[in-house]
Amino acid sequence: MSVWRDFSARRFLDRLSDQLGIAVVLAPGVLAAVDQHGAAVRDILAHGVSASAVAAGAVLLAGYARGVLDEAVEQGWRLPAIVDWANADWTTLRLAAVCHLARREEPALGA
């Protein structure tokens, strides 16, 4: 894996995290929803790629997030200026989960 690709992926995920306002402490109910989405993302990525690719966690997470964003924008979704976490939609929660996984100190996909 290219160091530059990993750096670019991390920058993308950090920027997305900042845009979503994830630095704000999430309420327990919202954090539970984000964790559920995170588990789904881990499962999707772990079963959808070869074992050698799982080690490239940030790159895979960024690619997945870009895919979710592209599809959502195509369907008319827009990143909210301010997220109402108590009423966040599926796309916002899924993107928050991807960012949350990327920020964990352990490997994002449990590799």
Automatic annotation (TrEMBL):
It holds the Pfam family DUF6401. It comes from the Bacteria. This is Uncharacterized protein. It comes from Saccharothrix syringae.
